Each structure stands twice: as structure tokens, then as C-alpha cells.
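Entry details:
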Amino acid sequence: MRAVGYVRVSTENQNGCDSFGLETQRDAITKYCIANGLELIRVYEDPAFSGSLQPLERPGLHALLEALKAGDVKEVIVTRMDRLARDTMLSLWLMKEIKKLGAELVSIAEPGRWEDPTQKLLLTMVAAFAEFEKSLITSRLSSGRKTKARQGGYAGGKAPIGYKAERGDKALTLDEEKASTVKRVFELRDMMPEASLQKIAGILNIEGHTTKEGKPFYPMQVKRILDRKAFYGGIYRYSGVEAEGQHQNII
């Protein structure tokens, strides 16, 4: 019987060699197929941090569902149900879609079959607990980030141009080169209050300034800098919290 596997990581910490890492999941799926006489033809994976993505936004899962349409795969193997999804309704929807495509979803850690009402109930409960666990983790992370934000520290997210975010740091650190670009944006705005964003972007490009990614400026990137005037002046805002930031002012 032909089978495919699916592996996924949903947080940065899982994208390695711990108990939920991709290599560990692939190894478990391979061993399961060998032990059960299954022909493993492919393992689909989503190595990016995919926890917040909808199922068809995950390229690996999307490719898997498309491949099932050929009808020659009879089992889809995951190491645990939460590798498929941590949302109960989403898990059940995916199980149903896989079933409609002529295959059966098999979780190594939570074996069960749809034909058995008791096993079906257990699978539903597993999906519900996975969603509950995700909600707890999200709540704890949000609480911790808000506490850090109240202290003016870095609560997460992509660092704005002019700053760097290092893992473990309590505050953003200054990027000297890009900080000069931020200063120049506000200088140009003060010098030419009526100038368009397009004009300011053009001047920045002529002077050799680049974005955080090293690319030319466009009006929207200029606007984003101007919209963060309070932040560049020392005010840190996060999810409704406002405090005097620990980061060094640029303006």
C-alpha cells in the first residue's frame, strides 16, 4: 500500500533537532511505514514557521492534497495530530478532505480509524486538546510580551529600520547606518513639509540610502518611517500598551 508523510514545524524552536523537528518526524514516519509494510513514496513538509498559516497557505500541505487527487495513495502519515493543525475544526476538515480523496489519515502517536465511533471520538478529542494547548501557549506569550512592553522593552516582531533585534535582548539595539537614513527622512520632511512621499523617496535614492533590506526607497517605505515618529522619539507601543522605550532614540 502506498503512503505519503507530512511533517511541519509551527515555531522557530521546533525547526531543529528537538522532539518535534522535521528530521525526527521524518524518521518516525519512515520507521512506521517499514514496520507496517507501507511504501512511503514521499514526505511533504512545511519547514517554515507555519502555525498561523491557513492550510492551503502551507505549500507542503497544499501539494499533498493535490497529489491525493491521483488516487494512488491510501494513507497519509503524521507523527501527531497537532502536526496537521492545532485547530479542532481545521483538523476535522482536513481529515474529511483526505478521506474524500480516497486516503486515510494516520497519526503515529494517536492511532485510530474513522470507521470506529469510539476512535473517531478520541481523534476529535485529541484535536480539541491540541487547539486548547495552542490557546494556552498564545495566551502566555501575549501576557509575557505585554509585560515586557510595559517596561519599554522589545516585545517581538520585526525590528523597524534603524534598529536590530537580537535573540534574548530585552531592547532593540541601534543600527548606526540605517539610523542615519531614518534621521534623513525626518530632516527632509522638516525641510520640505509639503513634499510628496515620492519626492522624499527619490532624494533618499539619489543620496544612496537604502531600505532595511538594502533596496531602493518607495513612497510606502517613507510613510512607514514617518508614521513611527513617536517610536523613533523613544515611545514604545505594543498591543495597546504605551511606555517609555528602552531603545535608543534616533530623533
Summary: The longest strand covers residues 39-49. Residues 2-135 form a domain with the Rossmann fold fold (CATH 3.40.50.1390).
